[in-house]
Design goal:
By secondary structure, this protein is of the alpha/beta class. It has one domain: Glutaredoxin. The protein contains 6 helices and 7 strands. The radius of gyration is 16 Å and the shape is globular.
Length: 174
C-alpha cells in the first residue's frame, strides 16, 4: 500500500511541476543548451551546425497520440511552407530504436528530418525527463529560445507559425 501511495505522490508532483512550467526547464530568452543529434540517415548534426537558421525542434514519439495529431500540421503548415527559406524543422524522437522511428516517419508521411534521442538525453536538456513529449522549441538564428509549445493546441500552434514568419521576415528587410 505504501508503494502505491508513493507512486501516486510522485505522479502528483510530476503533474504539479508540469502545470506550473509545462514541464520545461528552459524558458524564452535562454540560449539553447548545446546538443548533438543522430539523424535517421546516420548523419550527426550539432547545435552549431544550425546557427544562422530559424530552427524548430519537435519532440515526438510513435506512441504519442497527440504527436500523431500534430505532425501532419507541422508537415503542411510549417515544413512545406518554410523549408526553402533559412529554416530547419527537426523531429526528435524520444527514446525509440531506429527501425521504429523510420516506420513512424513513413506512417505519418512527414518529409522533415528526424533524429534519434536515445535515453531522452536531448529531451532532458529542455524539459523534465519524465514530462510529456509533445512539444516544440523555436530557436532564433543565434540559438536563443524564442517560443515554446506544449501539446497541440491550434491557437498556440498558429502563434508559433506567426513567430516563425516574423523571424524570417526580419531577414528580408535587412
Amino acid at each position: 500500500m505504501s508503494r502505491i501511495i508513493s507512486l501516486v505522490f510522485a505522479l502528483t508532483m510530476v503533474l504539479l511541476a508540469e502545470s506550473a512550467d509545462r514541464g520545461y526547464i528552459v524558458k524564452i530568452g535562454d540560449s539553447s543548451p548545446d546538443f548533438t543529434l543522430t539523424m535517421l540517415d546516420g548523419k550527426i548534426v550539432s547545435l552549431k551546425d544550425l546557427k544562422g537558421k530559424i530552427v524548430v525542434l519537435q519532440f515526438t514519439a510513435s506512441w504519442c497520440s497527440v504527436c500523431r495529431i500534430e505532425m501532419p500540421h507541422l508537415e503542411k503548415e510549417v515544413w512545406q511552407r518554410f523549408k526553402d527559406q533559412d529554416f530547419v524543422l527537426i523531429g526528435i524522437d524520444r527514446d525509440e530504436p531506429l527501425d521504429v522511428v523510420k516506420k513512424f516517419k513513413q506512417e505519418m508521411k512527414v518529409t522533415y528530418p528526424m533524429a534519434l534521442d536515445p535515453g531522452s538525453d536531448i529531451f532532458a536538456l529542455f524539459a523534465h525527463k519524465n514530462a510529456g513529449v509533445t512539444r516544440n522549441i523555436v530557436l532564433d538564428r543565434n540559438g536563443e529560445i524564442v517560443f515554446l509549445t506544449r501539446l497541440f493546441e491550434k491557437q498556440e500552434f498558429n502563434q508559433m507559425i506567426e513567430k516563425i514568419e516574423k523571424l524570417l521576415a526580419v531577414d528580408k528587410k535587412s
